[in-house]
Structures are given as structure tokens and as C-alpha cells.
Write a structure and sequence with these properties.
This protein has 185 residues and is an alpha/beta fold. The protein is built from six helices and nine strands.
Length: 185
């Protein structure tokens, strides 16, 4: 596993000095940087929200017709649908229009819509639930495009359960060219 980061020193503090790290801006990555990996996980964060879609289109362009590498996109929950079939983004926009962070859920929804058109790249997308909280891996359930609730009626997933679901997908892929979502049991 290789962490691709903007700041190697910061990553070494987090992962240790023995961690395999490639220091490079995500938007400067090329096919030659990435083609030997089985998976490339896009967990990109940027204050410029439009760069989420920029990176997705760049990665898709670089990996057209590649049959080895799978691109795995971490998307927000706003592209999920509620029990009435409405995008969660609609409710977020009503509640938080004008907030400085609102561009990210909008762009990640565009990103997912874009991915659904791509049929010649190995890609998978995954979204957490509305409440994405730090916590251990316990047990979880998988869904597709709808928000889900846990046994307490909450739309929550822990970082541990989310990570476990992503690793399980990498070990035994079942959502090629699809998005899945994860909720705590």
C-alpha cells in the first residue's frame, strides 16, 4: 500500500517513517505514477470543490481501457437517495445553501453522475451515511444508492466499518461500475 499525499512529513507523522509514501499533488498524477497499483483510492479533499470532478475526469481519462487497475472513488452521502427517492443533496441545499462547504457535496454528486456514464474503466464508488463518525470496525450492512439506517434508526457508519467495507470490496469485488454505501448494523 502506498499513500499518495501532498505533504510527506505530515503523512510520516501519521503512518510512520516506514510507510510507503508518494509525495505528489493529486492533480499532477499520471498514468505512469499509478498503473502498477491494483486499486487507486480517490479520497481527495480540496478547498476548491470543483477539483473533485476535475480529478475524477483526469483519472478516468488516464485509465480508459486499462484492465488491471480499479479506481475507487470515496463520495459523500449527498448523492444517496432518501426513502422517497429524492437526492439527499436537495435537503442539504435547503438547510445549508450559501455555506462555504456546500460546493463539495454538489461536486461529488456531479462526480457520481459522471461515473455512471463510464463503461470502459474499472471503477467503484462508495458513500458513507449522513453521519460518518470515528469509531471501530464492528459489523455493517451494504446498500446501493439509498440512505440506510442502523439498528438504532440512525444513518450512521463508523470509520472502522467504512474502511472494512472498502477492504472487503478490494479483496472480493462485487460493485464494478457501481456505487455502494455502508451503514452500521
Amino acid at each position: 500500500m502506498t499513500a499518495i499525499v501532498r505533504n510527506k512529513a505530515k503523512a510520516q507523522k501519521m503512518f510512520g517513517t516506514d510507510a510507503k509514501i508518494l509525495e505528489k499533488d493529486a492533480l499532477a498524477l499520471t498514468y505512469s505514477d499509478l498503473h502498477n497499483f491494483d486499486y487507486v483510492v480517490d479520497a481527495f479533499a480540496s478547498p476548491k470543490s470543483y477539483q473533485h470532478l476535475d480529478l475524477a475526469t483526469q483519472l478516468i481519462t488516464e485509465f480508459r481501457e486499462d484492465t488491471h487497475t480499479t479506481l475507487l472513488f470515496i463520495l459523500g452521502s449527498s448523492s444517496l437517495r432518501d426513502e422517497n427517492g429524492n437526492l439527499l443533496l436537495d435537503a442539504v441545499l435547503k438547510r445549508a445553501a450559501g455555506q462555504p462547504w456546500i460546493g463539495t457535496p454538489i461536486q461529488q454528486t456531479h462526480e457520481y453522475n459522471y461515473l455512471k456514464w463510464v463503461d470502459n474503466v474499472k471503477w467503484t464508488a462508495v458513500s458513507p451515511q449522513i453521519e460518518f463518525v470515528v469509531g471501530p470496525a464492528t459489523s455493517y450492512r451494504i446498500g446501493t444508492d439509498n440512505a440506510m439506517t442502523d439498528s438504532n434508526g440512525k444513518q450512521t457508519v463508523t470509520t472502522g466499518n467504512f474502511a472494512s467495507a472498502v477492504v472487503a470490496e478490494m479483496e472480493k469485488p462485487t460493485h464494478l461500475r457501481q456505487r455502494f454505501t455502508v451503514v452500521n448494523n
